[in-house]
Design goal:
- With 165 residues, the chain is an alpha+beta fold.
- It has two domains: 4-78, Beta-grasp domain (Ubiquitin-like (UB roll)); 79-156, [2Fe-2S]-binding domain (DNA polymerase, domain 1, Orthogonal Bundle), CATH 1.10.150.120.
- It contains five helices and five strands; from the N terminus they run ββαβββαααα.
- The chain has helices spanning 25-31, 88-95, 105-118, 124-130, 142-156, and strands at 4-10, 13-19, 50-53, 56-59, 72-74.
- Strands 2-1-5-3-4 form a five-stranded mixed beta sheet, with helices on one face.
- A hairpin with a 2-residue loop joins strand 3 (50-53) and strand 4.
- Helix 2 (88-95) packs across helix 5 (142-156).
- The chain is globular, with a radius of gyration of 16 Å.
- The N and C termini lie far apart (35 Å).
- The mean pLDDT is 95.
- Bound molecules: FE2/S2 (inorganic) cluster (FES) (2 copies).
- One FE2/S2 (inorganic) cluster binds at residues 39-42, 44-49, 59, 61.
């Protein structure tokens, strides 16, 4: 099948790759080594593949790579600070024991990031709604909700804009 060139910004860096027209963003990201993005249902149901496209949470199994031409894609790798320190959201998930097998975690982290960018101090209902499309088979969600609250508090202590990606 004929391949097409796609150019986009991935975690702040310009990338140029060749893709087949029907290849999803999920498969493309994993093929180029972005392995935080997990392959779950590939039907838009589980949220393990959640990334930000132009700062909006999207299930990357439901988008073709060609659709992100000229756009910005952010994954959990892109939240890590340049010195290697974890983003407060990632740290809060660890601190609150919101990770067991970890398969859902990068998607949860990205959905949380999108939530906290638009609502820095979310209500419980907002947290539930924001994570409604992200399934976890391990933790029972209580620790995940705690992690989101902790991340919210941690991010408020950062200098303005320091947690933005
Ligand atoms: S792998 Fe994309 S929603 Fe499940
Ligand atoms: S920690 Fe295992 S699926 Fe969520």
């Amino acid at each position: 099948m004929t391949k097409h060139i796609v150019r986009f910004i991935l975690n702040g860096r310009a990338v140029k790759i060749e893709v087949e027209p029907r290849t999803t963003l999920l498969r493309t990201l994993r093929e180029i080594g972005v392995i935080s993005v997990k392959r779950g249902c590939e039907e838009g149901e589980c949220g393990t593949c959640t990334v930000l496209v132009d700062n909006s949470p999207q299930k990357s199994c439901m988008i073709l790579a060609m659709e992100v031409e000229g756009r910005s894609v952010t994954t959990s790798e892109g939240l890590i600070f340049p010195d290697g320190e974890l983003h407060p959201i990632q740290q809060a998930f660890i601190d609150e024991g919101a990770i067991q097998c970890g398969y859902c975690t990068p998607g949860m982290v990205m959905a949380t990031y999108a939530l906290l960018m638009r609502s820095p101090d979310p209500t419980e209902e907002e947290v539930r709604n924001a994570l409604a499309g992200n399934l976890c088979r391990c933790t029972g969600y209580v620790s995940i909700f705690r992690a989101v609250k902790k991340a919210s508090a941690m991010m408020k202590k950062l200098p303005q804009g320091a947690g933005d990606r």
